[in-house]
């Protein structure tokens, strides 16, 4: 039997359960609510939000349980696949019988592992954006700098004055056209 000081927990690894289980579950509920609202309207929004939050919470909890059981690293995709198969089998069996268990286990394993893979690949991008915001406050007044290709840009004083002048000229032309029509 293992002693209590040999048992490894999430906090021992420097990983918070909030970032690995709670936040994805909340995000799953928000996405589920958005999907329910978009597809079926307001009447099924809470149903979709609840269902996707339950699936996400079960999957993330199972992934962390498998990771701790296997003594593996946090971003191991094998843990994600095993957790997806297990979660899908249990939830699918409850939802659709033995045939549902097979379908759900394959589906949740593919989707969950795919999302974990995407999160691993996108983590450096978000980390760079976060670091540019934090370092940007010390280096420049603007803070976060939008990428050049993005149409959303923060204008400086000269660009803002030029934009206001263009808008005023456009309003004047519209007033002239409405006067001519009446």
UniProtKB/TrEMBL annotation:
Membrane topology summary: Multi-pass membrane protein
InterPro entries (UniProt xref): TIM22 (IPR039175)
Subcellular location: Membrane
Tagged with keyword Phosphoprotein: no
Keywords assigned by UniProt, alphabetized: Coiled coil, Membrane, Transmembrane, Transmembrane helix
Coiled-coil ranges (or none): 152-180
Chief localization: membrane
KW Transmembrane (keyword) present: yes
GO biological process, one term: protein insertion into mitochondrial inner membrane
Residues that span the membrane, as ranges: 21-40
GO MF term set: mitochondrion targeting sequence binding; protein transmembrane transporter activity
Domain of life, source organism: Eukaryota
A GO cellular-component term linked to this record: TIM22 mitochondrial import inner membrane insertion complex
Protein name: Mitochondrial inner membrane translocase subunit Tim17/Tim22/Tim23/peroxisomal protein PMP24
């Amino acid at each position: 039997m293992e002693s209590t000081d040999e048992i490894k927990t999430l906090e021992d690894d420097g990983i918070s359960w909030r970032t690995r289980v709670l936040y994805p579950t909340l995000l799953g509920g928000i996405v589920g609510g958005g999907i329910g609202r978009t597809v079926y309207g307001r009447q099924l929004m809470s149903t979709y939000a609840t269902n996707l939050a339950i699936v996400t919470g079960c999957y993330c909890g199972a992934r962390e349980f498998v990771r701790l059981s296997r003594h593996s690293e946090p971003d191991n995709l094998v843990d994600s696949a095993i957790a997806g198969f297990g979660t899908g089998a249990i939830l699918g069996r409850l939802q659709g019988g033995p045939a549902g268990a097979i379908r759900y286990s394959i589906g949740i394993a593919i989707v969950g592992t795919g999302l974990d893979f995407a999160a691993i690949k996108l983590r450096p991008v978000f980390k760079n954006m976060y670091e540019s915001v934090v370092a940007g406050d010390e280096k420049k007044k603007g803070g976060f700098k939008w990428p050049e290709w993005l149409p959303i840009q923060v204008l400086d004083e000269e660009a803002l004055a030029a934009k206001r002048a263009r808008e005023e000229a456009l309003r004047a032309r519209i007033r002239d056209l409405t006067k001519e029509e009446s």
